[in-house]
TrEMBL record:
Domain of life: Bacteria
Protein name, as recorded: GTP-binding protein LepA
């Protein structure tokens, strides 16, 4: 069945609906009951630390967006200013308080815009490069939001298994409800760019090259210490038993949009490479500190 074309109007309506349906979650709406903090910390402490930091880094993501898309349009502006940033920052604050309730350290978000982004941002003053940056930005959004959806799904079932109904019902479920709308926004925006042939073939080629060279899993900020942390998240969520299946899920949008001509490509190889590398860095770190995963 052919896909319905995605119009800018459809995307704008989606953004408006998200704003109406999902007001930012307030800290007061959270029930802070934790039945067994030690059990929660043992199973998910590291994952919650990681997600709290990444959610709090939304403020840097907004700066990156302004750098990459100096001519940002109204729909994108409404999305990041009225929907995305206000929702994500609450996710971060709520998870940061949860991690402290579990006896862990507060998150330390990394808020510096990287040199690479600044360079790409400077080049993005040229319209053809800005379009490339825009597609990269949407693909990154789709991939990272998809990772968030998958992580919150796993955590939610885990919390229910642990009998932590307050965490599941008043923290993870409400957060989890907001992520698919973010994913859909990026997915629709990237799809519309390809479908409307906004990019010339050389620009699509450049996007592929840059994507391959700069792909990063959510929250790794192209730094090995965060890559190792992400490896720990993958392991703690039990996703390491099927990295290929996870790469397929996370890479679905870009496989379809960027690599459709590659016969039989299930997912872009750079995604699986990034996952393997993260898990290896995590295991290496465990080896060095003499600690081993028990789960
Ligand atoms: Fe979030
Ligand atoms: Fe999100």
């Amino acid at each position: 069945m052919p896909r319905q074309p995605i119009t800018q109007k459809k995307i704008a309506e989606h953004v408006q609906r998200l704003g109406e349906l999902y007001p930012p979650i307030s800290l007061d709406s959270v029930d802070r009951t934790i039945k067994n903090p030690q059990a929660v910390a043992d199973r998910y402490g590291h994952v919650i630390d990681y997600l709290a930091r990444v959610e709090l880094e939304v403020d840097r993501n907004v700066l990156e967006l302004l750098c990459l898309l100096p001519d940002v349009d109204d729909t994108n502006k409404t999305f990041y200013a009225d929907v995305w940033q206000p929702q994500e920052i609450q996710h971060g604050l709520i998870l940061d308080r949860l991690q402290q309730d579990l006896g862990r350290q507060p998150a330390e978000p990394h808020l510096d815009v990287s040199f690479k982004i600044k360079i790409l941002g400077a080049l993005a003053n040229l319209k053809p490069i800005q379009d490339v940056a825009k597609l990269l930005y949407f693909l990154t959004g789709a991939s990272t939001e998809r990772q968030a959806v998958l992580a919150y799904n796993q955590i939610n079932s885990g919390m229910r298994e642990l009998g932590e109904s307050a965490i599941s019902e008043t923290i993870i479920s409400p957060i989890k409800q907001q992520e698919p709308g973010h994913f859909a926004f990026y997915q629709m925006s990237a799809t519309a760019m390809i479908q409307d042939k906004v990019l010339r073939p050389w620009q699509v080629f450049l996007t592929r090259v840059l994507r391959e060279k700069s792909y990063n899993l959510v929250g790794t900020n192209a730094m090995d210490r965060y890559r190792a942390d992400m490896g720990g998240v993958v392991v703690q969520l039990g996703l390491d038993s099927d990295l290929e299946g996870y790469a397929r899920e996370v890479g679905r949008v870009e496989t379809r949009l960027l690599w459709a001509n590659e016969q039989g490509m299930e997912f872009p190889p750079y995604i699986l490479r990034a996952l393997r590398e993260s898990v290896e860095l995590y295991q290496e770190r465990l080896g060095h500190t003499g600690r081993f995963a028990t789960a």
